[in-house]
C-alpha cells in the first residue's frame, strides 16, 4: 500500500438508490495497472481541538466497526472504513459533515465513533438537481423539500446513548448557524453526479464546493473517496455519467475552490476494475445492475469487486 500521509491527521433509468448511494467491462487485462498517482505534498494539518489519543481513537473505531451488522461488515474489505477514516484524520469529538449520506452506511459508524462530544451533519444535493436524473416523479422530488427534517429524524433514530448529535442542510442552502463549524467534510462516492450535471448555466459542483468550504472551520479538511477513471480514458466518458472521474479533474475542482491537496492514498484502489467506454460503475458490486439476470456475468463482476477509487485529502487554508 502506497500512501502519502498528511502529518498529524489523519452513487438513465436506474433506481435512485443505484445512482445516489451506491458504488459505481471488458474482463480485466492479464496485467491490470493502476492509474498513475502523483505524489502529494506532505503538508501538516493543524489539530482542530483536543481529541482522543491515537490509540484510544483506533480502539474506539475498532469497537464501533465490530458492532455493525454482518452485511455492513461484509463490505469492509472493499470500503476499508477503518483505514479511510484514519487517513482522513476523523476522531472522536469532531464535527463531521457527510455529503450524500443515503441510507446511513457511514453515518451509523460515525455517530457512535464521534461520540457525545461530536456532531454529524448530513448534507444532500440541491433539490432542483434531482429533476435531472429523469426517473424521479414529482412526489419524490417534492419529498426532497423536507429532506433536512426527514433525515435528521431518521438519524436521531440511529443514535444511541453517547452518540454524536445531528444536524443537516442541503447544498445551496447552508444555514448561517452551521458556517465554519465542521472539522471535516466527507465526500464518499458523491462527486460524479455533481460533475455530470454541471453546465455553464448551472454550476452544481462549484456551488457544492463553496458550501463545503463554508461549513468548514479554517484549517478543516475534506476527505474524498471517488470512483477513479484511468488517465487514458476519454474525457467525455470520465465526466461522471458512468460514475467515474479522473483524479486531475477532482484535484483541479478543489484547487479552483480554494482548497489545498495535502494527502493521497491507494487504500481504496482496485486494479481489477478496468472499465471500457461501454461500462458503468454500477455494473460492479453491490449493485450488479447489468448482471442481475446473468449468473455468469454476475460472477465476473463479483470477482472484480467494488470500484477502483481515489482517496484524497484536501484542506481549507487557515484564515
Task: Write the topology of this structure.
Layout: E1 3-4, H1 16-20, H2 54-66, H3 70-73, H4 76-79, H5 81-87, E2 95-99, H6 107-114, E3 119-124, H7 138-143, H8 147-158, E4 165-170, E5 182-188, H9 191-196, H10 204-215, E6 216-227, H11 247-256, E7 260-265, H12 295-304, E8 309-315
Parallel strand pairs: 2-3, 2-5, 3-4, 5-6
Antiparallel strand pairs: 1-7, 6-8, 7-8
Key phrases:
319 residues; alpha/beta; Rossmann fold; 8-stranded mixed sheet; 30% helix
Rounded mean pLDDT is: 87
Number of domains: 1
Helix-strand topology string: EHHHHHEHEHHEEHHEHEHE
Write down the overall geometry.
globular
Which percent band covers the strand fraction?
15-25%
CATH architectural category:
3-Layer(aba) Sandwich
Assigned CATH superfamily = Vaccinia Virus protein VP39
Strand neighbour order, sheet with most strands: 1-7-8-6-5-2-3-4
Largest sheet: 8 strands, mixed
Given the helix and strand composition, which structural class is it? alpha/beta
Oligomer: single chain
Structure described in brief:
Helix content is 30%, strand content 16%.
Word description of this protein:
With 319 residues, the protein is an alpha/beta fold. It has a single domain (3-24, 34-271, 305-315), classed as Vaccinia Virus protein VP39 (Rossmann fold). Helix content is 30%, strand content 16%. The protein is built from twelve helices and eight strands. The protein has helices spanning 16-20, 54-66, 70-73, 76-79, 81-87, 107-114, 138-143, 147-158, 191-196, 204-215, 247-256, 295-304, and strands at residues 3-4, 95-99, 119-124, 165-170, 182-188, 216-227, 260-265, 309-315. It has an eight-stranded mixed sheet. The relative contact order is 0.19. The model is unreliable at 5-46 (pLDDT under 50).
